[in-house]
Amino acid sequence: MKVTDPAGQTWRVTRRWVPWRRRLKSSLDLAPDLPVGSLGDDPISAIVGIIFLIILLPFLLLALLASLELLLVLLVFPFAVLARMMFGRHWHVEVRRGFKPVYEVEAGDWQASGLKIHDLAGLLRRGDTLAPNLGEA
Fold first, then answer.
1. Which of 32, 36, 89, 132 could form a disulfide with 84 if both were Cys (CB 3.0 to 4.6 A apart)?
2. Can you give the pLDDT at residue 61?
3. pLDDT for residue 112
4. Are strands 10-16 and 100-108 parallel, antiparallel or unpaired?
5. In what helix (H) or strand (E) does residue 121 lie, and over which residues does it extend?
6. Which position has the higher pLDDT, 134 or 102?
7. What is the DSSP string of 17-63?
């Protein structure tokens, strides 16, 4: 649920679906804007192309790792949701400022976590502050 507090700050209050948080940032956020035109057939263009390749290689590797992590999440996701439904595992509700997690609380089953989401969203909408309880805040 997306909420805006009286100061105009955007918050997101959601269930955390998987038991871990993503560690890698998107490579799209990190990649520089490089002017890429046609590289000619001369030796200078080949050298420039090799330099661009060396510079872009870490970003390409990061994109590959992020893609592999996304594939893993997509493969595990149905089994994680099914296991949570079958075994009654408790859901965690997290509050994020923008996309950065700030607050997290264990909320119980599906219905209880939905009520907790609405309660926390109401607090934020009124302007009440939540004490950050995550080390990343």
1. 89
2. 93
3. 87
4. unpaired
5. helix 110-126
6. 102
7. -SSS---SPPHHHH----------SSHHHHHHHHHHHHHHHHHHHHH
